[in-house]
Design brief:
Length: 388
C-alpha cells in the first residue's frame, strides 16, 4: 500500500488498476460540520480506529489534526503507536484499553488508556510509579451496552477502590450508546444518559474530578444534545457514512462521502444465451450477454453478498454484477453500455456522471452496515489521498 503522502494523478501502469480514492477535503468538511454543531466549548475526539474505518488512519489523522481535532480515538495501543510514529501529537485515547504487558507501552507513547478493571489500574499505576509520573486514564461506565465498562449499578462499590492508586488520575469518564440511531430504542438511550450522569455524580461526591465526560458517538451527536458532555466522539459521520447510522429525523445530508472505489475492465467477452458464468452457476444469460471482468474480489473487500445483486457505474451508466463475486475477480453485464471498451473505468463505490453508488446501498444490498463496507477494504487496494 502506498504511504499516506501518496497522491493523484492516478496512473495504473505497472499496477493492478484497482484503487480507492480518499477525499481528505470531504473529511475536513465533515469534521467542521460536527465541530460547528457542538460549538467551541465541546471537544471533538475524532475516531480513527480500524485504519480510520478503512480510509487510512495516518493520512486522515494528519488532516484532522490540521483541522483542529482535540483528541484521536483508536481501539488498540498498536493503532496509537502508529499515529505517534507518524508524528501525530494530539492526545490519543485507546478505547479498548490495553493488553497485559502494554501498560508501559502506553506511557512510553503518551497514550491514554480506557480502563474498566482493577487489574488494569494496578498495571498502569505500577508502570507510572516506575516512571515517577501520574498516568491519566479514562474510566468506562457500562450504562446498557453490555460490552466493556464498570456496570453503572456497581460504581459506588468500585470507585472507592481507586483511591489506592496514587499514580493514576481519572481524567475522564465515558460510556457508549447501544442504539442512539434507533428511535424505537429512545427509552434505553435516555436511560443510558441518566445512568451515566448519576455515575459521574458518584465519582464527584467521592472527590474525583474528571476533566472530560463523554457519551456521544456519531448518532448521539446528531440526536441527543444532552449526551454531548464536554467531548464528543464522531466516527462514521467523519467519513460521510450516515444513512444507516443516524436517526432519520436527525440526518444531515451535507455530510460528504470520503471514499470511492475504482477499477478498470480487464476483459470483455460475449456469452451466448443459456450459458452460465461464475462459480456455482448462479447466473444464466437470458440473452446474448457482453460480460466485463473486473480485477477486484472479496479479498479486496468487495463483499460476496453483492453477487448477482449490486451495480457499478461504467460510462455514466449502471451495470449489474452477475455471478458470484470471486476472491480476486468480479463479472459485470455491460450489454447495455454503449461504446464500452477494454480499460474503461468502473466505479464500484462513489459518484460518476450524476450516478451514485453509496456505501449504505452496498451495505443494504449485502445485508450489513456501511462501516463494514469501508472497514473491509483490503490492504492490497491502494488508498490514493486527494486534497486541494
Amino acid at each position: 500500500m502506498p504511504d499516506s503522502s501518496y497522491h493523484k494523478p492516478v496512473d495504473s501502469s505497472g499496477h493492478r488498476p484497482t484503487w480507492a480514492e480518499i477525499d481528505l477535503d470531504a473529511l475536513a468538511a465533515n469534521f467542521q460540520l460536527v465541530k460547528n454543531r457542538v460549538g467551541p466549548d465541546v471537544n471533538v475526539m475524532t475516531v480513527v480506529k480500524a485504519n480510520a474505518y478503512g480510509h487510512g488512519a495516518v493520512a486522515c489523522a494528519r488532516r484532522l489534526e490540521r483541522e483542529g481535532a482535540n483528541w484521536f480515538g483508536v481501539a488498540l495501543p498498536e493503532e496509537g503507536i502508529e499515529l505517534r510514529t507518524a508524528g501525530i501529537t494530539r492526545p490519543i485515547l485507546c478505547l479498548g484499553g490495553f493488553w497485559e504487558g502494554q501498560a508501559e507501552l502506553c506511557l512510553q507513547h503518551a497514550l491514554v488508556p480506557v480502563v474498566y478493571r482493577l487489574d488494569m489500574l494496578e498495571a498502569i499505576d505500577r508502570a507510572a510509579r516506575d516512571r515517577g509520573i501520574v498516568a491519566e486514564v479514562h474510566l468506562k461506565i457500562d450504562t446498557g451496552m453490555g460490552r466493556l465498562g464498570v456496570r453503572f449499578d456497581e460504581v459506588a462499590e468500585f470507585a472507592p477502590q481507586l483511591k489506592e492508586f496514587k499514580n493514576v488520575r481519572i481524567d475522564g469518564l465515558m460510556t457508549h450508546f447501544a442504539a442512539a440511531d434507533d428511535p424505537s430504542c429512545e427509552t434505553l438511550t435516555h436511560e443510558q444518559i441518566r445512568r451515566f450522569h448519576d455515575a459521574v455524580a458518584v465519582f464527584r461526591e467521592m472527590g474525583f474530578d474528571p476533566k472530560f465526560v463523554h457519551l456521544a458517538n456519531s448518532a448521539g451527536i446528531f440526536a441527543e444534545r444532552e449526551s454531548w458532555g464536554n467531548m464528543v466522539r464522531p466516527g462514521g459521520v467523519l467519513y460521510g457514512l450516515w444513512r444507516d447510522i443516524l436517526d432519520p429525523a436527525h440526518r444531515n445530508e451535507n455530510l460528504r462521502p470520503v471514499m470511492s472505489l475504482h477499477s478498470r475492465i480487464m476483459l470483455l467477452k460475449w456469452v451466448p444465451e443459456g450459458e452460465t458464468v461464475g462459480y456455482g452457476c448462479t447466473f444464466e444469460a437470458s440473452r446474448k450477454t457482453l460480460v466485463a471482468t473486473i480485477p477486484i474480489g472479496y479479498d479486496d473487500g468487495y463483499l460476496r453478498g453483492l453477487s448477482n445483486r449490486s451495480h457499478v457505474i461504467i460510462r455514466g451508466m449502471f451495470a449489474t454484477v452477475i455471478g458470484r463475486i470471486s476472491m480476486d475477480l468480479t463479472l459485470v453485464d455491460v450489454t447495455n453500455v454503449p461504446g464500452v471498451k477494454l480499460n474503461d473505468e468502473v466505479v464500484l463505490l462513489g459518484e460518476s456522471a450524476g450516478q451514485s453508488v453509496t456505501a449504505e446501498y452496498l451495505a443494504k444490498t449485502a445485508g450489513t452496515l456501511s462501516y463494514e463496507v469501508t472497514c473491509g477494504l483490503g490492504s492490497r487496494v491502494p488508498r490514493l489521498f486527494v486534497e486541494g
